[in-house]
Specification:
The chain has about 300 residues and is of the alpha/beta class. It has 13 helices and seven strands. The protein has a seven-stranded mixed β-sheet, with helices on both faces. It is elongated, with a radius of gyration of 21 Å.
Amino acid sequence: MSARRIDQPTARQVRLGSILRKLREDGRRGTQDAAARSLGWVPAKLNRIETGRVGVSERDLNQLFSLYGVTDEGLRTYVLDLRARGNVRGWDSDIRSVVSAVYADYIGYESDAVEAYNAETNLIPGLLQTHAYAGAVLDMHLPDISEEERCERLAIRDKRQEVFKRPNPLIFWGVVSESAFEHVVGGPDVMVEQLEHLLNLSKEYPHTVNLYVLPKQSPWHAVMCGSFMILSFQRSWEPDIVYLDGLTSNRFLEEEWEVATYSRLFRRLTMEGSYRGPKSLAIIQYYLNEHRKGR
């Protein structure tokens, strides 16, 4: 069966292409052109497969396995399964008319990730935001959008939080600057609800939602180059990715050295710069009490 052209690649198809590209590079099979010619393909075909723009048939996938010397049955089975699942278009494929393609891809990756490492400098992490808090942030970022689009965007944010309710929930590790609890986003009532939500999440999901508070006096604020998210997947063949979310654009970092740089920074933030456990929850409780006074 020939490869099927894809108008809008799913996140899994893009990830499958990334895995195949990594197998080619790790196996020292040369450039895309050289690998394609070894199989008697036109070079553009392999490029489209590696970027997820066309599907890959099982026959072609087995040819690539042979060329790259992939003998690990676990890896072969996993990639074949990813290919099959890649044809199933999840809800992340249905929202591309509302959000950017990069954000839609991110949601697809987040749905399959097993762990997430999030550093936030000014806001509560998106996965932990209440509907009202997320709405207040959205109103400040995009004050001119229609009510319909506003509702759609908030529904997307709410649905993302279902990763905590999966049979194998996403394990979340968050480093949050203390200033995020101090800011009065949406008013005292919104902040009270938001901080109560954080404390409840920590109690309800003690092994799933892990919060670190970066105190205001910590010198580690100097190396916080902005918010970032690292997503980690179940299989070692799927490399971690970094997602950078900005006001007007967002992007992925997938080069090994870039991901390693952010991973090292996150580890040091948790080990050297931040409070965790009872001490971090005490800080959140302090600001919750302060916002209650402001009502």
